[in-house]
Request: fold
Amino acid sequence: MVRFWRLFIQRIFQERRIAMDRIFKKIGCDEGVELLQYVNSVLEKTPHVKIYVGCDSQSFSNKTIYVTTIVFRNENRGAHVIYKRESVPRVKDLWTKLWGELQRAIDAAGYLKVEGGIEIHQIDMDYNTNPKHKSNIILKTAIGYVESMGYKYAVKPQTLIAISAANELCR
Reply:
């Protein structure tokens, strides 16, 4: 079964290879970096770093901004973030907007995992376990999807480093 999913993921990324923009930016720098090359260079320098992936979005009157973040976490030495900011026409439906966040995080993590053999420590999802919050509507589906792809995940109210970074970059 695991082999089936691995082949399935590889096929999806082969089909979407051209469509996925793999240029990310460093915070405080306008220079773009190719995602896989950059992650490999970070791992060469600091092989014990943990990689967190997340995405957050913010809707405005005529557009929705998605920010996908890759966070390199050194246990006692802080973190380093690269990100990709994407503007699309306003997404009015909450489910679609939240699913867009998850899909962008999975796309980035999958690219690193399939194309680079890079281990992703965790996918951070900006969804709340408390049913009082609107983001709870997608929680069970998102967890099932992330687990089926073989990733660990974290959701609110846990501390989500990749989501915190994405949230700041959305504004």
Observations:
- The radius of gyration is 15 Å.
